[in-house]
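The pair is quoted verbatim as follows:
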Amino acid sequence: MTNWVPQVSLLRPGYVLHHTVTALAAAFGRGCSKEILEIDERIQEYQDLAVQKWLPLLFSADTASQKSWRNVEQALNGLSQLLSERHNDPWLRDLTGANRQSPIIREAVRLLADSVLRVETSDESQAQREATKALPLFQRSHVPAGELRSKLVLILVEQFEHRDWPCEAMAQTIRRQPSLQRYAWIQ
């Protein structure tokens, strides 16, 4: 039995990717309400980790370590269920439901993850390039969850670079999309 790891582990470099996903998978596997409550208290941090680190692993063609891949899948399934049921946000569930065998979707997920990471490290120009590449891949593959998140990255880049008119125009366009109403994180 894997012991539950306090969420302080998010702050330790090198510990986050492997151990946190393993701990989350175990916690969701046990279904312990106390552990799940602790996860829920930091749901945004876990969603960020999911987008930046775990989704690319889930969609990776390289499943060399089947156990690690199963842990990623179980952690993402648990997070997506938690987000959907407690926060009325099916975004992660919708994205993880995309075709994992599709090379186009795999590349789109990788680009999206990298663009989100680039925004967080203030590399807006690279974030914009990668989100711009991810967007048509998600559109062509009919993955609205990825499409919306790519658009959000592009809006954030415009905002961070103080380009008010393009930011406002893109935000107004995205507000009119019916699929926007499905996702609490973007509203």
User: Anything to note?
Assistant: The radius of gyration is 17 Å.
